[in-house]
Input
Amino acid sequence: MQDIIYSEENDLAVYGPATGADEEMLPVVDEHGVVLGQIPRSYAHSGAKPLHPVVHLHIIDRQGRVFLQKRSMSRSLWPGRWDTAVGGHVSFGERILEALCREASEELGLHDFNPSWIDTYVYESRTERELVFVFAIIGDYSLNPSNAEVTEGRYWTEDQIQSPSCRSKITPNFLSEYKRLSKAMQALL
Output
């Protein structure tokens, strides 16, 4: 069954599956980040590919190592793989930096940081299409990755990330983003 979800701001209808009252709602955006409507989170990964915003935070220590989180085995996408330090959806009505701070707190217990914007790009997979807002921070932070989404975390050198034996343990999305943005992130050192 399909519901029609309306955005009162611009009177645009966005179609999605019927949802329970507790399901998180996500904005649908254009390539510039302009909100066009909203959808249930489950619809964002259904294969319909509505463009929706996400945030990524890369954490780099003073030695140039990159912190990666290990995704919980209960995650539907890439369980048990190493991934970007912080990543998550922007909720409907939430600002990008609010989402970044919320996700950093939820996933790593990270609260006091000043992120630098690195890039914004569209990522598309078989099941979803995301407008990715990428940020980075440099420093030595006290990180506590322990919740239902993240099982552990550690710093990786560039050689470790590029090692063929490690690449199979890291999400393809992180590897693609790292290849694209590693020079920009290292320039912050």
Observations:
- The longest strand covers residues 51-60.
- The chain has a mean pLDDT of 89.
- The longest helix spans residues 172-186.
